[in-house]
Protein: L-fucose mutarotase, type 2
Organism: Sphingobium indicum BiD32
Amino acid sequence: MQKHVLILDLVDDAELIARYEAFHAPGAVWAEIIDSIRAAGILAMDIYRHGSRLVMTMETVDEFSFAAKARADADNPAVQRWEALMAQFQRPVPGTPVGEKWQRAERIFDLALQDVNGQHHDSETE
């Protein structure tokens, strides 16, 4: 299984943010979108919001490919309609290449790796 974290901003407008959240409420996302997510090998997906910043977490099958998902989405009219609808609410984070939206975040900390071989750094020795 793979884990991915992606970030995206929303237009900083309370009414638009409320509408965006309504589109993502339980049962509100179009069935074709849910089907396309699952067909790509995405096992779990969550989106969190802080202000106008979104953070998406995904757990995928080992074989998951962002490129394959993008190709499948490009050939799916329902996904294209959904993306066009969502575009009015979304804006890329700074530094995003033109034509892209969600950006992968780089993991810089993993608790499981902090006690490798029972060793860790003490604040007194830093």
